[in-house]
Specification:
The complex is a heterodimer of chains A (about 675) and B (about 110). In chain A, helix 2 packs parallel to helix 11 and helix 13 runs parallel beside helix 16. Chain A contains 17 helices and 26 strands. Among the domains of chain A are: about 150 residues, no CATH class; about 110 residues, Fumarate reductase/succinate dehydrogenase flavoprotein-like, C-terminal domain (Methane Monooxygenase Hydroxylase, Chain G, domain 1). In chain A, the strands form 7 sheets. In chain A, strands 1, 2, 7, 8, 9, 10 and 22 form a 7-stranded mixed beta sheet that branches. With about 675 residues, chain A is an alpha+beta fold. Helices cover about 30% and strands about 15% of the residues of chain A. By secondary structure, chain B is mainly β. Chain B has a domain of about 60 residues: Alpha-Beta Plaits (2-Layer Sandwich). A two-stranded antiparallel ribbon of chain B has the order 1-4. In chain B, strands 2-3 form a two-stranded antiparallel sheet. In chain B, strands 5-6 form a two-stranded antiparallel ribbon. In chain B, strand 5 and strand 6 form a beta hairpin. The longest helix of chain B has 5 residues. Chain B is globular, with a radius of gyration of 17 Å. The chains are: A alpha+beta (about 675), B mainly beta (about 110). Chains A and B meet through helix 1, helix 6, helix 9, helix 10 and strand 19 of A and strand 1, strand 3, helix 2 and strand 5 of B.
Chain lengths: ~675, ~110
Amino acid sequence: MSDYLDFLQAEADIPEWPYPLRYRKENHVSSDVLVLGGGVAGIHAALTLARIGLSTVMVEKGGAKKAGSGGVGVDHWHYACTNPASKVTPEEFVEAMIEGMGEYECGIFDYINYKEGYDTLLDCERLGVKIRDTEDEFQGAEFRDERTKLLFSYDYESKYDIRVPGGWNIREPLLREARRLGVTVCDRIMATSLLTEGGKQGARVVGATGVNTRTGEFYVFRAKATILCMANVHRLWVFSTELKGSACMYDPNCVGDGHAMAWKAGATLTMMEKSRSESGGFNYPDYGVGNASNTWFACTIVDARGKEVPWVNRDGRVLTTVSERYRPAPGQKFLLPPQALFGLKGPVYAYAGPRLIPDLCARIQSGEFVLPLFADLPSMPDLERRAIFGLMIGNEGKTRVPIYDIYTQAGFDPNKDMLQAPVRSPRAYLNRTWWMADPPSQWRDPGFGSHGGLVVDWDLKTSLEGLYAAGQQVFQGFGHSGAATSGRYAARNAALYAREASEPIIDRGQVDKEKARVYAPIARKRGMGWKELCAGIARIMQDYCGEYKQEGTLKLGLRWVKEIREREAVDTVARNPHELVRTLECFTRLTAAEIIMQASLARKASSSVLDFRRLDYPDLDPEGWNKFITLRLADGEVKDDGLPFKYWLKSPWASAYEENYERHARLR
Amino acid sequence: MSDKAYMVPNPFMPGKAVEIDPQICNGCRACVEVCRMDVLVPHPEKGKPPIVLYPDECWFCACCVEECPRPGAIRMEHPLNQRVGWKRKETGEYFRIGMRNPPPPYEKPPVG
């Protein structure tokens, strides 16, 4: 009798809300630095600040214990170029990544990640996270470095990507240490807005407001510096609680609150026009189907009759051993992991690694391969099989219980069984990630590992004074290691600023205005619920900002957003604090929709790397448009300043990564 | 058998997300505290199993299962449209999540 409807039947009376109701009650919290978002970036930022000795408040919408998309664990630590076994330097890797992403990449974020990723992992190890194969379970494996007992993925020669055998438990030691050092953890609080000096757009950020997701009470946070550590905009085009829950990489709390509040405060964002195909509800649990990517790289795939689908190298040569799938081609310096390269262009030849045959679609249609396909774990070498299913699936937090435990308890034996891949239409197999379905073209998402966000400088400072950014909050900010390293780095710079900064003064008028906005939905008696509003916003994005865009339809989309904001959104009803928070998230989505459509209007060109198609400007990546579109609000008007590619190596910055890093890393 | 029916909203989809065994659960609320989405809320009566109030918002991260101090008290369940199948290489037998008479569990724990 744990289901709500059963409960209703048995108890007859509708139970009251289980938490005390404290709408509008004000709590005032002051600190040197405020960390908004308590996921991977947030916890590393908070811990760093506490170690420096600053008073720190960390605000998290969900539960602190496992907060964020990475709070459930990590299976491989990306791009630890400075580990003792690595054969790639941060300089080489950052150049490769920028080339791979067609220059639409944040070299600052990347370089920090490549430069101090390994140190960050060592820090986790000191706090009790198991990062090495200390039990020698993988002794003799090609991917193990015998001296350090580190385990690697993707490129077994270059050894920059570390498999983490205790990654499922990476969160709790960090949180424990942060609490021990005095970090104030405020969880179950949705941050709703940034507060600025004098309440002015574009002015110094002096704090934030928040609302408790259980009690509905209000928070006013005051701080000398603020670090935004929230997630990117997700589930904006595809919203369906019925379909989407399990089949999404991101914590459902990730709706882009940080992007929206930074935008309203006047911060500059870039690459917001980028989105890509999103298979949404057509998917299965992440990493829970037969596939050969990411955690499952590079599993053997067979067809329904047991015929092996060949792997080929970048030149199309068929690879005859499993070992070759994890190695560069002769003369190739190193491989970029396959998921690093999105966009329509596909991987850059210089760093392209082995893959399954590109003509799989045609060979399915000709009858050579028969569906369904299966991931043939039993045929993999023992240690590779154990690495894929035991280590990666066992430690990528979202899969430890949902996939490893549930599947094995249901009888799935990785030594005997082949996991089925979803049956797709043949054309789906044109995609490198064919197990991800073939969705309607209007279904989009900023995507995994590649998206717009805040423009930052070499301090990871945003365009606003007192405001720093880390993790997915930064444009193109990607991955667990990227979130962790940028959190630490932003914290060091925010600390330096906070030490010198004047006392922040909160503008009461700005607080009152925000309070009125936040509590409006609970005062209403009639109107739609948050789910319908959410679905309506998704429909606007599908229709007016889908795969193909043009000026007229984008403007019509903006008109719909504006009208819904003024009409249906104003009528949306929240019946308890939970519904209130979900309704406020819809308001976030309206703002996100506006930013994305404004950015899409501003880019009057199509782009292959951005997976961005304008019907009225069909030429791909024409001259003059190979740059960052950067947008901000000034006095309520959208301003487009623009930034050149690699702006971080141009004046006023030094021309070399190392020099900029040394000047701004604030290590001592 | 009940001779009464009530006016209640339609069942949720996903309907369960997690299932709690009231015989094992002691109502400690560890699952309530870890859940990022407040899918679970406390039972009005202290010590009773929590109520699965918002299964439709579940991310299926199973943090509640990991946090539960009483093995078997809470179990995550993939919705029917999220259940997958597999084939035994040697025999060609086909199995699936949720099947009647499944093969025996594979007992080896994950790495770490």
